Amino acid sequence: MQHIEFINTLRTELQQAIVGQEYMVERLLLGLLAGGHILLEGVPGLAKTLAIKSMASGINAKFSRIQFTPDLLPADLTGTMIYNPKTMEFSVKKGPIFANFVLADEINRAPAKVQSALLEAMQERQVTIGENTFALPSPFLVLATQNPIEQEGTYRLPEAQADRFMLKCVISYPSMEEERLIIRQNTGNTNAAIRAVVSLEEIMAARNSVREIYVSEKIEKYILDIVFATRDPELARLKKLKPLIQYGGSPRASINLALAAKAFAFLHSREYVIPEDIRAIVHDVLRHRIGLTYEAEAENVKVEDIISEILTMVQVP
User: Fold this and answer.
1) What is the per-residue pLDDT for 78?
2) Total domains, the chain
3) What is the rounded average pLDDT of the residues 277-285?
């Protein structure tokens, strides 16, 4: 398939710095190809930041990292107006958000006011500073990491902010063999430097190819059946789930499910989407878009359980 070669080159380059974590690397590539922002959740030390930095290094693009802290201000992200006493004029100083790849590190360590400063940038691909509005570079991708919500000093992402992320990926610990390789890699003398092996032009061409991937009407209905079942479980003959779901996926869930499935098909050298593509990425697309009731939390029901239950009941085309 056209434009697929560079993905394999980039994946090979990333493997020099990242041991294992194939699921995380694949999801980062999905976001890159579909043009969707990604949220990585996991305890510290699982190479989330390293993976994002390595991917940005493998692409000849502008990269910036923002460490989110409780005292961060919105202007620290977007930029601000600076007064020059000599000219007696204000000039715009752009913030670190003006980059192709923005790593929002530990995004849930900052309060809601700062998190919401990302909203306009993520959705509209533009930033307003003072009276001026500036377009962000293309491609523009926010890759955020967050600590599990139970950890000390974290703020839950507002629903509107979480919905802006195409995928939310939960990262787990490496296997024992993978961790053995990690130890060797980080305690030896060799230091793997990631080379820029991909151009922005290749990324944009691949994104156009992803958009051309064919989705049949049956697959579209499958996507809609899944998303509508999160809003009204009775549609999928799952009446018992109704008291557990506070709200379901928005139309953005349907759009992102279709887009991510197209990117997944592209990654696997197919020009059409099959039901397995949907099932492979549905948890990542929906887990941050379904709100649970207090009853669900009291019964210790997880969002993943609800999505899996819906998948078993929705008819596969």
Assistant:
1) 85
2) 2
3) 93
Say what angle helices 48-57 and 5-14 make with each other, to 10 degrees: 130
Distance of CA 188 to the CA centre of its chain: 32
CA distance from start to end of the chain: 25
Question: Same domain, yes or no, for 98 and 241?
Answer: no
Q: What is the dihedral of CA 289, 294, 298, 301, to 10 degrees?
A: -20
Continuous H helices in 67-175: 74-78, 112-124, 159-162
Residue 191: inside a domain: no
Classify burial at 104, counting beta carbons within 10 Å of its beta carbon; exposed 0-12, middle 13-18, buried 19 or more: buried
Q: Provide the domain limits for residue 135.
A: 5-186+197-203
Query: How many CB atoms sit inside 10 A of residue 170's CB?
Result: 15
152: pLDDT strictly greater than 80: no
How many C-alpha atoms does 103 have within 13 Å on its Cβ side?
Answer: 18
Distance CA 297, CA 292 (A): 7
Check residue 173 and report its DSSP letter. Answer: P
pLDDT digits (tens, 9 = 90+) for 220-243: 999 999 999 998 888 778 888 888
Phi, psi of 111 (to 5 degrees): -70, 170
- pLDDT tens digits along 250-262: 899 999 999 999 9
Let me know if residue 208 belongs to a domain.
no
How far, in Å, CA of 43 to CA of 288, rounded? 17
What CATH number does the domain containing 279 carry? 1.10.8.80
**3-class state of residue 169 by DSSP:** strand
Give the whole-angstrom CA distance, residue 6 versus residue 10. Answer: 6
Q: Based on the fold, state whether residues 165 and 18 are members of the same structural domain.
A: yes
What stretches of 192-250 show up as alpha helix (H) in DSSP? Answer: 200-211, 217-231
Helices (H) and strands (E) in the chain, counts: 13, 11
Question: Does 238 share its domain with 300?
Answer: yes
